[in-house]
Write a structure and sequence with these properties.
By secondary structure, this protein is mostly helical. It contains 5 helices and 4 strands. The strands form 2 sheets. A two-stranded antiparallel ribbon has the order 1-2. A hairpin with an 8-residue loop joins β3 and β4. α1 crosses α4 and α3 packs parallel to α4. The termini are far apart.
Length: 207
């Protein structure tokens, strides 16, 4: 499977349907060198959606999805991306929004099959269909216990969405060697500066 937004930053993505949520989050501009926002223009958004939805269909056993995006869809998709990002960041310790965000215009078709299996399929067009697909996968991931492992890297200059594969779900960096080491180095330098400043104050002559 090819998750075009996520693979700009990380070599591997979340398998299955949750990969669509991660890939939407990673359409944002970020990384070094700075990558463009894939939802900034219709052409790049359409190209992203075509590839991401092909991977989503493959990972979830669905048929081919054809989705057409227009200029009017882009602000809504960027809004969804930002709301998801804020919610995940809040879950990791930042201040949470007081009110829940409701998506009343994004229908989902639920079917009960003869073998008692339930399936949910997104409906609508453009941003409504894609929002239904993304939120449906997030809800399914919450039910299966994988939602809590989708996180936003604590490094603000990175901010990428990553899947925490640590045993105790304690990861905060998409890469401990990259973002983690850089943050630890900055913290170490800050502590050294504070110690040196405190020492200078102690050694300074009085009066």
């Amino acid at each position: 499977m090819n998750w075009p937004a996520t693979e700009r930053y990380y070599p591997t993505a979340v398998p299955g349907g949750l990969g669509l949520v991660q890939d939407l989050l990673n359409t944002a501009s970020g990384g070094r060198p700075r990558q463009p926002d894939l939802l900034a223009e219709v052409a790049s958004a359409q190209e992203w959606a075509a590839t991401a939805l092909r991977s989503w269909a493959e990972g979830t056993g669905r048929g081919r999805v054809r989705l057409t995006l227009t200029e009017a869809d882009l602000p809504e998709l960027r809004r969804l991306r930002e709301q998801l990002r804020r919610a995940l960041t809040a879950r990791q310790g930042a201040a949470a929004d007081a009110d829940a965000v409701r998506f009343t215009s994004c229908p989902v078709r639920v079917s009960l099959h003869g073998d008692a299996a339930l399936t949910a399929e997104p409906e609508g067009e453009g941003w409504r269909w894609l929002t239904s697909a993304v939120l449906g996968e997030a809800l399914l991931a919450q039910a299966t216990g994988t939602w809590q492992r989708l996180k936003i890297c604590r490094n603000e200059k990175c901010g990428g969405a990553f899947y925490d594969r640590s045993r105790n779900n304690s990861g905060v960096w998409h890469s401990t060697r990259g973002c983690g080491n850089a943050a630890n180095l900055r913290a170490s330098r800050q502590r050294r500066r504070e110690r040196e400043s405190a020492q200078d104050s102690t050694d300074a002559p009085s009066g």
